[in-house]
From TrEMBL:
Biased composition, class Polar residues, residue ranges: 604-613
TM ranges: 55-76
Keyword set includes Transmembrane helix: yes
Region (Disordered) residue spans: 585-613
Organism: Scylla paramamosain (Mud crab)
Domain of life: Eukaryota
Keywords: Membrane, Transmembrane, Transmembrane helix
Alphabetized PROSITE patterns for the sequence: ARM_REPEAT
GO CC aspect terms: axoneme; ciliary transition zone; kinesin II complex
Protein name: Kinesin-associated protein 3
Length: 642
């Protein structure tokens, strides 16, 4: 301790002696109790760290030995060694920038007229000094970073570090070349990246561009922790886009076959494959063949989760699906899925089946096997995915009617459509399957004749809050109304058109679109429903105006009752008959022209109308309710009685 008060060489030597003691864990307890020694070490470090890298290294190493054990973290916080280490890191990085700048100037040339040979010798001499300094700095930076990493196990300490810009210091240290230092720096960044605030700071400092060079390193430990840092960062969509931009995709794909890094690499690639724009970029790498090889050669019955997650996402791209099916790819996948009843592998196959074109036609030979699985009576996830595959197979040459009867699927479908009979996910897939099957006229006739239509109506009534379920059921109704053979039975089932009218103004855009299309088909083929649908549309578009007229009528009715001594002279024209057939719609004022005839909503001609105190132009718009373009106009114009 007395040597710490001498000249610099003695200080370095004295600190090295104490370090030899501190490296033995048995002496840490005794050193911890000697506050005089620790105080002297902290004071010397604070005052002289700029003067000697060796002194800084020895003293910080002493406190690092304490940081290895959580019980001694109070010693480090008491002497504020963590804050001092961050100051040392910042100062050494600034010193490096200055050395590099001076070296660059010497390389470009010194004084004009100087001997080039002497300039080269001077540059080489300074370069050796610079490299020696960098080597010592790396040791100091490494022990400082390690100490900070150890004490950062306390979240409150980590938050203090963040406020002092620990992320910025670590990102700057990524430019160093020492593998040992980089391993600590990237490990620390990985730990910090678990918090969104730190991740955002890293993004602002272009962390992806600076980390990308480490993916090509030969150091296996450094590569592994770098990939795991990228995994944490890949939860951010913006950082995923940067990973693609800097060319990390082919580098990561090349690491898929290395067992040590495989799980982390697959997880990063899975995150990258979430974005639709990135899915197509996998086509230009060796990812698809590698994934197929890993899936088909997996020794376990269930393929690893990360691998299957990536495969499922890749299969959602049409070009990727074509590459997967090349050769006997689809056949091998189906064989493995059916053998092990693997739901995730079947989900991958289901994504392949959703693409139109030659890949879908390849499924024809497997339809029978899938139907046998579905009709087996089980209702697990594997069966759900098999139903999903069948629901995607809209093949013109497939005899759906024969499939339904041969594999006895009708009874299974009816049982599955009963409310709460199966899980909602399976019920939804069954409805999707019906929508696909109903595209065939013979199968549609079979569906209607076996009473499945009523089961669909009951399911719609039970699941009316589930938008996806409602949409798929309405689509089945649409498919059934497209065929002339089944259309009358759908229309005669009054619940179907009534439900469609109610859903015509649903908040879901897709539901409204399918309802409108289906109701248009019904209107073209049934006059009675055409009038009801047209009247409903009119009431909806002009609800404000009708409410106003009804309110005015009520006032007139109350006045008439008073004049008649209580006898009701008024009547409601909004609920008991057609809205255009009532004189209460108009008041006395202007006479209507006798020479013109106006088409009524029921199709008959109306040559005379009661006079109106509205303008003639407004009256004509009201009378021409048969025009679909009039309703929005009436809704937008606020009519006020004179």
């Amino acid at each position: 301790m007395e040597m710490l008060y001498e000249d610099m060489p003695d200080k370095v030597r004295g600190a090295s002696f104490i370090l030899q003691l501190a490296r033995n864990p048995d002496y840490l307890e005794e050193l911890c109790q000697n506050e005089t020694v620790l105080g002297a070490l902290a004071r010397v470090l604070r005052e002289d760290w700029k003067k000697s890298l060796d002194l800084s290294y020895n003293i910080v190493y002493i406190f690092f030995c304490f940081s290895v054990f959580s019980n001694f973290h109070s010693v480090i916080s008491h002497f504020k060694i963590g804050s001092l280490c961050m100051d040392i890191i910042d100062g050494e990085l600034q010193r490096t920038d200055q050395y590099r700048e001076q070296l660059t100037k010497r390389k470009k040339g010194g004084e004009l007229g100087a001997d080039p040979a002497k300039l080269q010798q001077d540059y080489e001499r300074n370069l050796k000094k610079y490299q020696a300094v960098i080597e010592k700095q790396d040791q100091v930076l490494r022990v400082c970073t390690y100490l900070l990493l150890n004490i950062a196990e306390d979240v409150r300490v980590e938050e203090k570090m963040r406020r002092k810009n620990i992320v910025g210091l670590l990102v700057r240290m990524q430019e160093r070349e020492s593998p040992d230092l980089l391993l600590l720096v990237v490990s620390f960044l990985k730990k910090l990246s678990c918090y969104m605030e730190n991740k955002d700071d890293m993004a602002d400092l272009n962390i992806v561009e600076k980390v990308s060079r480490l993916v090509s390193t030969d150091n296996s430990d450094l590569l592994n922790v770098t990939i795991r840092l990228l995994l944490n960062l890949s939860f951010d969509a913006g950082l995923r886009a940067k990973m693609i931009k800097v060319g990390l995709l082919p580098k990561l794909v090349s690491l898929m076959s290395e067992e040590r890094h495989q799980q982390a690499v697959l997880a990063v690639l899975y995150h990258l494959s979430v974005d639709d724009k990135c899915k197509s970029m996998f086509t230009y790498t060796d990812c698809i063949p590698t994934v197929m090889k890993l899936v088909l050669n997996s020794p376990e019955p269930m393929v690893p989760l990360e691998l299957m997650a990536l495969a499922v996402n890749l299969a959602a791209n049409k070009r990727n699906a074509q590459l997967i099916c090349e050769g006997a790819g689809l056949k091998l996948l189906m064989k493995r899925a059916l053998k092990y009843r693997d739901p995730l592998l079947t989900k991958m196959i289901r994504n392949i089946a959703q693409h139109e074109g030659p890949t879908r036609a390849l499924f024809t030979e497997f339809v029978g096997d899938l139907c046998e699985v579905v009709s087996g009576g089980e209702s697990d996830e594997f069966v759900l995915e098999c139903v999903g595959v069948l629901g995607n197979l809209s093949l013109p040459d497939l005899d759906y009617c024969q499939l339904l009867t041969k594999h006895n699927l009708i009874d299974w479908i009816k049982d599955s459509l009963q409310p709460d009979a199966v899980e909602d996910d399976l019920a939804l897939e069954v409805v999707v399957l019906l929508g696909t099957v109903a595209g065939d006229q013979a199968a549609a006739q079979l569906i209607v004749n076996t009473g499945i239509l009523h089961s669909l109506v009951n399911l719609l009534n039970a699941k009316q809050e589930d938008d996806e379920m409602v949409l798929q059921i309405v689509y089945v109704f649409y498919q059934l109304t497209r065929h002339e053979a089944t259309r009358p039975q759908v229309i005669s089932t009054t619940e179907v058109p009534a439900y469609l009218i109610d859903l015509m103004h649903d908040k879901n855009t897709e539901i409204r679109r399918v309802c409108d299309t289906t109701l248009d088909i019904i209107s073209e083929n049934d006059n009675e429903w055409a009038v009801r649908i047209q009247c409903h549309k009119f009431r909806w578009y002009n609800s404000q105006w009708l409410d106003m007229v009804e309110e005015a009528e009520n006032i007139d009715t109350m006045g008439g009752e008073e004049m008649a001594g209580g006898e009701g002279l008024g009547h409601s024209f909004l609920h008991h008959s057609d809205v255009l057939d009532h004189q209460g719609l108009y008041s006395d004022g202007l006479s209507s022209p006798e020479s013109e005839e106006y088409p009524g909503i029921n199709g008959h001609s109306e040559s005379s109308r009661p006079s109106s105190n509205y303008t003639n132009r407004y009256r004509q718009h009201v009378l021409m309710l048969g025009e679909s373009t009039i309703a929005p106009w009436v809704r937008q114009t606020r009519w006020k009685p004179s």
